[in-house]
Design a protein that fits this description.
alpha/beta; Dehydroquinate synthase-like, alpha domain; six-stranded parallel beta sheet; two-stranded antiparallel ribbon
Length: about 375
């Protein structure tokens, strides 16, 4: 059976934040990071809560790649407040943390009513504002833990591109390539369908058109808006279709070597495409054709897509190989077996068009090095 599920109410545009004032909440719990507080973004959310007369607490201890320890601290405070509204403000890390806090807090409480979750992304990258996935890091065992549960899907996503305007170019680049990876892997996933393909292909075209503009000029609000919408659409696609081996490898690179997620995806994407060509070549050709690239044959279309991705990485200073991610080669080779095992166990790898063996993953890692 094929299905497409989307429960998130999406509000976008300059007045979207005002929707907070209409939420039927008695106590709000804001999950964010110190930077969002420092630059005043958290105050904008608080202002709307204050206007609506909704009491609130701000938990701003979320770090990049949120740890299990941080999530547990947040869940404890959330339960103490008996909050019925969680507002996630920030990039993928605060949104993932908020999802996990609400999930674990609700499971541990005696309240049968699940708290409402509102996500306000400040980067155009993860699509986490519409997905059932949250990734937390077990820093003791150096592994990323993807959670996947429909209860993690936010009830509302508020998309306001003004929140993304302060992103520096290198973050715009890495998060934008994360969007592209989500969209391409959703389009070629084993579980892709007619609906996911529409969202994924639109997101792919948006990234190629608007990411270079957003990178070159952070004040280009049309580019910022289109990238935010592309991120959301790619999220809607992969939430239904799943992802692929690029993400499986990226999670392992992040867990062991602490490589930022978007950067890991960007560096691996072209290698994963070549790895999958036998099983997904026609889909890669379709993408290349949609982008106006040379694609008269499957092989030509795939190579055109690979080159276009590498060219875009080069134009934004993103490496196309793992060796350029400041990873020590000897340590990388020592960890290859562990990485291959992690990739095979990763929930994202299950959607990959080519089902790999342990040896296949090691060969991919070797070729990507």
């Amino acid at each position: 059976m094929t299905h497409f599920y989307g429960k998130t109410k999406i509000c976008y545009g300059e007045d979207a934040l005002a929707n907070i004032e209409d939420l039927p909440a008695k106590q709000a719990f804001i999950v964010t990071d110190p930077f969002m507080v420092k630059i005043g973004f958290a105050d904008r959310v608080k202002s709307h809560l204050d206007r609506a007369g909704i009491p609130h607490r701000t938990f701003d201890a979320v770090e990049p790649d949120p740890s299990l320890e941080t999530v547990m601290k947040g869940a404890k405070l959330f339960m103490q407040d008996h909050a019925d509204l969680i507002i996630a403000l920030g990039g993928g890390s605060p949104i993932d943390a908020a999802k996990a806090i609400g999930h674990f807090g609700h499971k541990a409480s005696e309240n049968p009513v699940k708290p409402m979750l509102v996500a306000i992304p400040t980067t155009s990258g993860t699509g986490s504002e519409v997905t059932a996935i949250s990734v937390v890091t077990d820093k003791v065992n150096e592994v990323k833990i993807p959670l996947n549960d429909d209860d993690l899907i936010p009830d509302m996503a508020i998309l306001d591109a003004r929140f993304t305007r302060s992103l520096p170019p290198h973050v715009t680049a890495a998060t934008g390539m994360d969007v592209l990876t989500h969209a391409i892997e959703a389009y070629t996933s084993r579980q892709a369908n007619a609906f996911t393909s529409i969202y994924a292909l639109h997101a792919i075209k948006c990234v190629f058109e608007f990411l270079p503009r957003a990178y070159a000029n952070g004040d280009d609000m049309e580019a910022r808006t289109q990238m935010l919408l592309a991120s959301c659409m790619a999220g809607m696609a992969f939430n239904n279709s799943g992802l692929g081996i690029t993400h499986g490898v990226a999670h392992s690179l992040g867990g062991i070597f602490h490589v930022p997620h978007g950067l890991a995806n960007a560096s691996m994407l072209s290698h994963a495409i070549r790895f999958n060509i036998f099983d997904a070549g026609i889909r890669y050709q379709e993408i290349a054709q949609a982008l106006g690239l040379a694609a008269t044959k499957v092989e030509e279309g795939t190579e055109s897509l690979i080159q276009a991705i590498r060219d875009m990485n080069d134009s934004m200073g993103i490496p196309n190989r793992i060796r350029d991610l400041k990873i020590d080669e000897s340590v990388f080779r020592e960890q290859m077996d562990t990485m291959a095992s992690n990739v095979l166990e990763d929930i994202c790898t299950g959607g990959n068009p080519r089902q790999p063996s342990h040896g296949d993953v090691k060969l991919l890692l070797e070729e990507a090095w």
